[in-house]
Design goal:
Strand content: 15-25%
CATH superfamily of the largest domain: NAD(P)-binding Rossmann-like Domain
Order of helices and strands: HHEHEHEHEHEEHHHEEHEHEEHEHEHH
Distance between the termini: 68 Å
Structural class: alpha/beta
Number of helices: 15
Helix content: 25-40%
Shape: globular
Strand order of the largest sheet: 3-2-1-4-5-6-7-8
CATH topology of the largest domain: Rossmann fold
Radius of gyration: 22 Å
Number of domains: 2
CATH architecture of the largest domain: 3-Layer(aba) Sandwich
Number of strands: 13
Largest sheet: 8 strands, mixed
Length: 376
């Protein structure tokens, strides 16, 4: 630390909070947090961790600032284009709070590098934008017993969760691979460059991630341990799913969280499908296709006959659906994947639950022949 004791005047507005006080501030000051990714999620997360007085902050990112980063990565300015993100981020954060110790790692994170870096930090924040890095973070956190705060965004929705952190129930802490055992195939889920993202959404989700870190360190409030929150910025709605049941069902069905064995397991409590498989279902099975977006979201689906049941209403409405096959569709495939897991737990072997990979974004990118366009 640059100072043994934090200058409490800087943090006075949070130390006066009832139940927080100087004790919580000192816990922040003694803590060390590593943020993997200094992009759309990492920028606001880093800013609020530094402002809150986290004593030691590490930053991992191999990338350089580009002009199309600037609408969401607000640590950087136009003059920073072409410069190392971690070096610019450190410079800007030192202006915000010079009392804190910053350490930067301008590299691509691999599992080998992660083992060397992670041991010095209490909490690891996954603010990365690719699955290779995310699974490397998850596997190393599991191996070293480090808490992982996770965030992700796509189009108009974002997610936040806390993995590998024991809660008060005494149950096993859920790891990222317990819920998502196998990485998606290449180009299965569009990245921000392909699907787009609103800059302010990364600010919201990155701030939530910082909030989770602060709650875990100080013990103040209830964290998203073993839960995942989905936020839809178009409708300003949130949805929280308990991950312990999903993890338990994954293991009961033979789906393992082992990185060596995960890809060898074929059975699962629900199935993610592409458009070709969806067409086969429509032609050969009794199936209900359900748009789980809110009723105001556009565009409306006209390619197939489709029920519109918003996500928050689906648990109750699903009992009234007669078809043995349910296909869930959302904008990008993320909400439908989470909801498919939940319905699979609810129905067990009674119904087959599917989630359309890529959601409406995928449907819009495909040209259908006239027969399917007419719903034949």
């Amino acid at each position: 630390m640059k100072n043994d004791i934090p200058s409490y005047e800087r943090y006075r507005r949070q130390t006066v909070l009832k139940g927080f006080g100087t004790e919580a501030q000192e816990k922040l000051w003694r803590s060390a947090v590593l943020v993997v990714g200094a992009g759309g999620l990492g920028c606001p997360c880093l800013q609020y961790l530094a402002a809150a007085g986290v004593g030691s902050i590490g930053i991992v990112d191999f990338d350089k600032v580009s002009i199309d980063n600037l609408h969401r990565q607000i640590l950087y300015g136009t003059e920073d284009v072409g410069k190392s993100k971690v070096l610019v981020a450190k410079r800007q954060l030192e202006k915000l709070n010079p009392e804190i110790r910053y350490e930067v790692f301008p590299c691509t994170l691999t599992e080998e590098i992660a083992r060397d870096i992670f041991s010095s930090y209490d909490i690891i924040v996954d603010a990365s934008d690719n699955f290779d890095t995310r699974y490397a973070v998850s596997d190393c956190c599991s191996e070293l017993g480090k808490i992982m705060v996770f965030g992700a965004v796509s189009s108009y929705e974002g997610q936040v969760a806390v993995f590998n952190n024991q809660d008060d129930s005494g149950e096993k802490a859920v790891q990222y691979r317990d819920v998502f055992p196998v990485p998606p195939r290449a180009h299965e889920i569009p990245n921000c460059a392909e699907a787009g993202v609103l800059g302010m959404l990364t600010g919201i989700i990155g701030s939530m991630m910082a909030g989770e870190v602060i709650k875990i360190i100080t013990g103040y409030g209830i964290s998203l341990t073993n839960r995942i929150l989905t936020y839809d910025c178009k409708q300003n709605t949130t949805y929280i799913v308990n991950l312990q049941e999903i993890s338990r069902k994954n293991q009961e069905s033979g789906k393992t969280n082992s990185k060596e064995n995960g890809s060898k397991v074929d059975s699962f409590i629900h199935q993610e499908i592409d458009v070709d498989f969806l067409l086969q279902l429509i032609n050969n099975e009794a199936v209900d296709i359900i748009d789980i977006r809110s009723r105001e979201e556009k565009p409306l689906l006209t390619t197939f006959p489709c029920l519109q049941i918003p996500m928050k209403e689906l648990n109750d409405a699903a009992d009234k659906l007669a078809a043995d096959n349910l296909v869930l569709i959302c904008q990008s495939g993320q909400r439908s994947k989470m909801m498919a897991k939940e319905l699979a737990i609810k129905f067990g072997a009674q119904k087959k639950i599917y989630s359309l990979t890529g959601g409406v974004n995928q449907l819009l990118s495909i040209k259908f022949d006239k027969q399917h366009e007419e719903g034949a």
